[in-house]
Amino acid sequence: MKKNNIKGSLILCTAALIWGLAFSAQSAAAKYLGSFTINFLRSVIGAVFLFVFIKIKDFKSKTPFLPSDKNGRANLIKGGVICGTALAVAANLQQFGIGAFPNGVASEARAGFITALYVILVPIATAFSGKKIDLAVWAGVIIAICGIYMLCFSGGFSGIYTGDILLFLCAVSFTVHILTVDRLGAGVDGVKLSCIQFAVCGIISGVLASIFETVRISDIMSALPSLLYIGIMSSGVAYTLQIVGQKYAEPPVASISMSLESVFAALGGWLVFGNRLSVREICGCALVFAAIILAQLPQFKNRKKAV
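The chain above was modelled as a monomer; its predicted structure follows.
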């Protein structure tokens, strides 16, 4: 039984802070580079960082990167390729969504809260497998819809941005990614799985960038600080913190702690770019965040029953 929820929550909140501020870094990088190029570079940086981290961690034991047994090696590679493909779809939709907003729109806040809808979409998706959905989750769905309306429809349906649609598709894609990781990640090293999935995501994004985008070294250098942050901090450090934090925190506590990413995304956009939300948009964000927390309540109830 995990008992040190406070320690785990602090670690996971740190990860959420890093992820939340990454939305601002992504917005900054989008001023110089195309979405495919950004995800190619951030994924490569993240994969290299995690690979070096793994080699340093396993230096004394001289543990090989790939498992020696055939089944373990096949499961790790298969999981990394499939999860990496799902991640490539989700990450590129997110980056295109962030870059699609016009100037003056609080894109970081909108991206953070719309992306966070995966917390609600995941349990809904499990309903298709025959699992009963708690009423709290359905209530969360209704509240989230109200919040999204206030956040994205401040000017009526004509006020919808292309970025809003892309980010909702991103949330759906992250739902698929999370379910894929849950299915294929069992029994394999989580950090190694992440390293491989980042490499796969980088390869897919790199191929698409070479076809559809023009890359200049000067633009890469201009976006380098942002790329280093989202590559090392968001993809590398934050993921490692997530693994460590979940060793201490109960799953419901972990989910709520990580959902703070959306709040930090809004704060980051305000502090870095001065993108302030209207009162209506703030209320919309509050409703979405409330829905995210409400969707976690069944986990607390199930945990108490299991004790």
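The longest helix spans residues 70-100.
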